[in-house]
Amino acid sequence: MRTTRVFDAANRLARATGMRARIRLRPGGGYRVDLALPQGLPVENQLLVLEALAGADRYGHHYTDKAQSVWAEYDKEQEEPRSEQL
Fold first, then answer.
1. What would the pLDDT profile of 7-43 be if each residue is shown by its tens digit?
2. What pLDDT score was predicted for residue 1?
3. Is the pTM of this model over 0.85?
4. What gap in Å lies between CA 18 and CA 36, rounded to an integer?
5. What are the boundaries of each domain within the chain?
6. According to CATH, what is the number of the domain 2-74?
7. What per-residue confidence (pLDDT) applies to 84?
């Protein structure tokens, strides 16, 4: 189930950074996870963040001189076509 992937990723991001991940519904369906990154995050934790983002349909990184954040988007789950049994 796709929502399980979303909550799992948000949990992994939160554990890797010590920050709170926010989950929002996207307007066309699906979910978006946003997370502010703390300064000085150890390399090991940065790799855990990348692992968590890798399962998303899309992800990215925003940064300014004062703050950094990552985001991940998960598309709306499509129903599997039914196979007809004869």
1. 999 999 999 999 999 999 999 899 999 999 999 999 9
2. 47
3. no
4. 10
5. 2-74
6. 3.30.70
7. 62
| Integer angstrom CA distances of residue 56 from 65, 82, 83 | 26, 25, 28
Longest dimension (CA), the chain: 63
Q: Which residues contact 2 (CB under 8 A, 6 or more apart)?
A: 30, 31, 74, 75, 76, 77
Contact present, 74 and 2 (Cβ < 8 Å): yes
E strand map for the chain: 22-25, 31-37, 58-63, 68-74
**CA dist., res. 34 & res. 56, Å (int):** 12
Question: Burial letters for 16-49: b for 16+ Cβ neighbours within 10 Å, e otherwise?
Answer: bbeeebeeeeeeeebbbbbbebeeebeeebeebb
Would you state the pLDDT for residue 82? 59
Mean pLDDT of 77-84: 60
CA–CA gap between residue 14 and residue 82 (Å, rounded): 37
